[in-house]
Amino acid sequence: xxxxxxxxxxxxxxxxxxIVFGLLGLVSGTDETATIAPITLLVILLGVPPVGVFxxxxxxxxxxxxxxxxxxxxxxxxxxxxxxxLLRDAQxxxxxxxxHIALRKAISGGVIAALIAVPVAVLFAWILTPFSDAITxxxxxxxxxxxxxxxxLSKGRWAALVxxxxxxxxxxxxxxxxxxxxxxxxxxxxxxxxxxxxLIADLFLALSPSxxxxxxxxxxxxxxxxxxxxxWSGRMPNPLQVLDARQAASTAGAAVVSSATFVFSPVAMxxxxxxxxAGRIKNGYRRLTSxxxxxxxTTESTYIAETLIPLIAIGLPLSPMAAGPANxxxxxxxxxxxxxxxxxxxxxxxxxxxWQFLVFGLLAVIIAVxxxxxxxxxxxxxxxxxxMRKVSHEAVIGAFAGLIAVICLYEGGLIALLVAITVGxxxxxxxxxxxxxxxxxxxxxxxxxxxxxxxxxxxx
Length: 460
Hints:
It is built from 22 helices and two strands. It is mostly helical. The chain has one domain. Strands 1-2 form a two-stranded antiparallel ribbon. Strand 1 (337-339) and strand 2 form a beta hairpin. It is globular and about 65 Å long. The mean pLDDT is 83.
């Protein structure tokens, strides 16, 4: 497709991604992997061209990490997984009576970081590209090392590392079972099972008398919504005017540093960048507001960098983000595939040029910012109130459960659905009991399909 044909797809899908995930960011607890990944997979399977898929995804993560600050700051509940590190600082600012300041600092930091992260990540990917063949050649062992490193760096630490062994063996066994039953292996079912593991575990707990008793509530949960407060009139503030010079510089610096890395946990990077760039500020109010800007900016830059660097330079999902929410961009059979034995790929890495990642990535981020930043700055209070009063969290979960069931049935019928439920139940339990998060489990899946065959061949 020529450039003029690509632009409408990029703009249209970026608008769709920004709208869908800008709204989903308002719903507290909507985990990125369990929401972004399945819908991105659906977009791919519907036949959207690569540029449209990429623009959709980039707009989705940019929009969600702007609006996830709304429930985090105004309601005191995390908008998603990466909003959790912002919660304490947001709560302290709520207690000071300035939650609206916390919100503005957070989303303004996110805007600056997102715009910086795309070119920096593309540049770093370009530097790594000459080494891509060498990296691909040792991919099975890199996945093993990356899985171990991500496990040890997770909250589960050594428990998550040890739990990788039975989890990998479970994947190997289920893959052999599916191949015997269907005459082909599965990948989407494993991916969706891991992505929705905590949800599946909760559904099974609800079927158990003891588990149901632990979930029972005597009354509907209540939240205290902070008052609406606007300190400007007329045109929309500039993010560089919302942040003071030092906050803007610190946010930009954190974005550059975190955009040049792609193997660390996004949550860990969010905490680290906040402490590094704002931890030494002595004034309590300035430190908290700076933390909000830098940390939320880091949620944007890590997600963008951990998607773009492996996607451009290598073509294999060698990062926690690439192995999680961004996984469909790498592996979405039969459209995008990874050859486990050869270590080769046929995905966005092969279908788009580096300049397209830069141009359409920036275009998608700008569209997401233009659509969500004014909304979050002016309508945050009204939107948060409407979501909490009118939108059923159970209905959102039910919709995603139905979508996941349909996609599994599409790939391998009832066998694929049973595999997804099994992997999800075990993975959800490991997540809840041993803090083995979905990023570790996704790396475990790639160890099962890439490293285990390599080890078997070596021993044979």
